[in-house]
Amino acid sequence: MLDATFPGLAWEGFVPISSKTLGSSTCVIHLAPDPAQAPACAQCGALCPKVHDTQYRRVRDRDLFDYRVWLDVPVRRVRCQRCGVGRERLSWLAPRARMTERMRLHAEVLLRLLPIKHVAQLTGLHWHTLKAIDKARLGRELPPLDLSRVRYLVMDEFALFKGHRYASVVMDAERRQVLWVGEGRSREAVRPFFVWLGEHCQHIEAVAMDQNTAMDLEVQAHCPQARVVYDLFHVMAKFGREVIDRVRVDQANALRQDRPARRAVKQSRWLLLRNPENLDERQAADLNELLAINQPLMITYLMKSQLKQLWYAKNERAARWRWTHWYNQALASGIEPLRRFAKNLKPYAEGIIASAVYPLNTSVLEGVNNRIKVIKRMAYGYRDSDYFFLKIKSAFPGKAR
């Protein structure tokens, strides 16, 4: 009778004997042991007709139409001749679980597609219950790491929470696999990664990063044979902030008596920062006109283009020559923001020159950071950093070689 009422519901070793509804959306089904099937030991699988004791447990099963289904299950402990007293084997209910395997698998499918908040509204399960289910799934499904094959690393940071709280991420540059994520961006914060890497530190040949002194020093301490490669994107972004913007503001202030010229300089920020190939004909014409009448901006713009060419040298010797030539020109330019930037950049010169041998960059991690932002927005934030980091690793499992 209940089989007809609840088609497709089957619980191995048990049969439904009655049901009742609670309110308008909850159904409780009472199960009883199937008299035609003896219980089996959970450890060895042997049939055990002798029952030691029975405890009733209410567990959640998958919804049936508009009903939330609960089961009253008589969970037995059996006397096994080999193992002694122990729990009976239930293929559809894990030990101490409060939901069936069918419900757990259903929740896992939903969690692959939807944020926890939405799955909680759909299923009626608590946020922490769903987090535990998804966290266990992520731990099972993460691909194994072969650290012996890791030669090139990319390190970067991303905003973890509001209020200048950051986390660091390390990726295998060749396989695009996130190896490690940890809170903080100091030397102490990234040190656990190198401790975890252990003897495999000796295989690391190069590490790409931005101008993060903490990461640089930690790489030198644990991987002294590795070359540090500074990323083009971060250096050029810093050049734009500290040199182009400063020179532009200084030139605008010097043109207070010439309002049209001052307005043109003030509105030229994106013309100066964009790559020439990204300008349309009108923008290119405006840029050429601006540079023709303002020598400091022209020098700054040309020095930006020459600085970028350091990352495209055909070999280390050419890169070193380009750096020396650029550095001397910057000092001789007479433009103070440019001179100051060059002096501050000099300690990082070897990391720029190394890019000629190891053409690495953190652009791939910029894509990772964008994906991380999407993951955070979908979940409306994460209360468990370890769970969040598992989500990141799962999103970037790497590619096969």
From TrEMBL:
Entry coiled-coil feature ranges: none
Residue ranges constituting the Transposase IS204/IS1001/IS1096/IS1165 zinc-finger domain according to the UniProt record: 38-83
Domain Transposase IS204/IS1001/IS1096/IS1165 DDE: 153-392
Domain Transposase IS204/IS1001/IS1096/IS1165 helix-turn-helix: 88-136
InterPro entries attached to this UniProt entry: Transpos_ISL3, Transposase_DDE, Transposase_HTH, Transposase_Znf
A Pfam family reported for this protein in Swiss-Prot or TrEMBL: DDE_Tnp_ISL3
Entry-linked NCBIfam families: transpos_ISL3
Protein name: Transposase
Species assigned in the record: Congregibacter litoralis KT71
